[in-house]
Structures are given as C-alpha cells and as structure tokens.
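Study both lines:
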Amino acid sequence: MFEPTLAAQTAIRTALVSAQGVTALVPAANIRSGSTRPDKTPSIILSDGNTSLSGYNYRAQRTAWVYLDLHIWTLDQGQDAAKQIAGEVMAALDHGPLDITDGYCDHFRITTSRFPRDPDPAYGHGILSCEALIRWIL
C-alpha cells in the first residue's frame, strides 16, 4: 500500500535530517510530523498535508499532488532564528525532486514562506508551504 502524503513527509524528513545546515540549528529528533506546537524547540513539524489524486496515467501508474506545510518553531530565540532555520530548510530541499521510496517525485518546490507572530511572543514561528507531484505503480 502506498500513500503519497506519507511518502512525501518521509522523504522531506530524510532530506532535512541529512542536511548539516539544518541539523546544526534543529536536532534531528525535533524534525517530525505532527499538528501542534511542539514541546521541544527548536523544531520543524511537518503537517498532515493534503492530497489531490490525479488518476492513472498510461502505464498503470497513479499520480497525486501533495501539499504540505513545514512549521518551524523556536522558543526564546526570536523570529530571526525561525527565519534562519527556514533558509537552511529551503537550501536543503532546493536540490530538486524528492527521493520517494516505492515511487517517484516528478516535481517539488517550496511555494511560500511566511512568519506569523505567535500569541506568545516567546515563540518564533515560520511556515514553509510546498507541493510535490508523486507517482507510483499500482
């Protein structure tokens, strides 16, 4: 069984924990999937994401667009620290398609970055939105 959102999350996490620039700022154990403000910072939280199934192509392969947000959190480091981590994440993921286990990534890019203020001013928060076109054989 292949689920494209989970495959994209796994590939993104693998790329991030392999990037020395990212792990110099965020411990690998703090790069994970989830949906809440983390208990340990700094951290990168990969959202649950959304998938738009695109059907079958001519070779009995299934395709889907996957949309994910990466939430960057810091505590008592300021918003600039979240921006610095975001820069390292963008550099780590800028190499092109993701390495998908049991599938293929035909397109990957970070589409937006934003840095909303958290209600608790001690937290820095950044959000990187990305999209991937994933394909797999049935």
